[in-house]
Amino acid sequence: HAKSLGRSSYSYYTQELDNAIRYQLKMKADLAYAIKHRQLSLAFQPIVSLAENKVTKFEALVRWQHGEQWISPAEFIPLAEQFSLIKPLGEFVLSEACRQLKKLKAKGYQDIVFNVNRSVNEIPLSANENDEWLLMIDMYGLSPADICFELTESALAPDKRNSEVLFNNLRAAGATIALDDFGTGYSSLAYIRRIPLDYIKIDRSFITDMSENPDDKILVSTIIAMTKSLGKKVVAEGVETIEQVEQLQQLGCDYIQGFYYSKPIAASDIPAFIDNFSMLNVPCVSAE
Ligand code: C2E
Ligand code: MG
Ligand code: MG
Ligand code: MG
């Protein structure tokens, strides 16, 4: 009895494993194909300046339509990392962001800055490759100041590639750096001292519970105060309600990003968004 049970569960598990491997291989091949043929796309989420009451910054967020389905970057970025596809994916994202930005500037939208996300695994291993991102920006006739690179706390950890040299290099050229999802990683305040940063983005999880949870409000307030005393700008992520906007404004937050103002939109919708925002100054929510 035990023997037959053992055998059937063995074949059951090999079948499962087989399916899982098959699925992974298919996803790998499909993702590689999609990157190579520029079948991924970008959506852009406005980042609103509270002080100036205007929008010039947009975060580029990668999108993948796989067959009938839209797959979330939260799912396929880790796949790209696992399958060594993160470098070509990152190249696609930066080049596509530059291409779209160039078009918008030609239409007269000169002040736009695009925020581009970078995974820690995209940070070059050797200093020889440090100029690759800048070369790409230059290739599109843009200036480094037109791009802000968003990195998470793991990219700042010591001994992680040559991040310190890279960030100094990018900033010396005029690009800006944002620390993404602040508060969720293994942050050490020492990194913030060591790495030159322009923006700190407070993670959505703190903002979501701010209204109900007094501790989260204290944390948000403290992060804002700390960031500002360090001479950096602070962005609140995942802002969905007017109450959150008002609280953040009171706390002196510089920038707001979230569904309250807009979901990520197509590049072609950016001009209308900017025009309507400055004209009406009321929240405008577009479909993702
Ligand atoms: P992230 O950089 O923190 O981007 C913000 C995410 O929060 C986006 O999800 C955005 O759609 C979502 N979001 C913005 N406002 C709100 C809100 O008010 N409420 C809620 N519930 N969500 C909001 P998305 O586009 O699914 O991206 C998820 C993550 O995938 C990003 O987090 C980023 O870490 C990564 N990612 C996206 N694009 C790229 C890319 O081009 N390269 C790399 N390396 N990572 C990327
Ligand atoms: Mg980001
Ligand atoms: Mg973020
Ligand atoms: Mg996030």
Strands, helices and their partners?
Layout (H helix, E strand, L loop, with lengths): L1 H35 L4 E9 L4 E13 L2 E3 L1 H10 L3 H21 L6 E5 L14 H8 L7 E6 L10 H11 L2 E7 L6 H6 L4 E4 L1 H5 L5 H16 L3 E4 L5 H9 L4 E3 L12 H11 L8
Parallel strand pairs: 2-4, 4-5, 5-6, 6-7, 7-8, 8-9
Antiparallel strand pairs: 1-2, 1-9, 2-3
Bound molecules: ligand C2E and magnesium ion (3 copies).
What would your notes on this structure say?
This is EAL domain-containing protein. Residues 24-278 form the EAL domain. Strands 1-2-4-5-6-7-8-9 form an eight-stranded mixed β-barrel, surrounded by five helices. The relative contact order is 0.11. With 288 residues, the protein is of the alpha/beta class. The protein is globular. The chain contains ten helices and nine strands. Helix 5 (163-173) links the parallel strand 5 and strand 6. Ligand C2E binds at residues 45, 61-62, 72-74, 77, 93, 117-119, 150, 180-181, 204, 237-240, 257-259, 264.
* Beta-strand content: 15-25%
Class derived from helix and strand content: alpha/beta
Q: With helices defined by DSSP (H or I, 4 residues minimum), what is the helix count? A: 10
Integer average pLDDT:
90
What ligand species are in this complex?
ligand C2E, magnesium ion
The ordered string of helix (H) and strand (E) elements is HEEEHHEHEHEHEHHEHEH
**Major β-sheet profile:** 8 strands, mixed, barrel
Q: Report the uncertain regions.
A: none
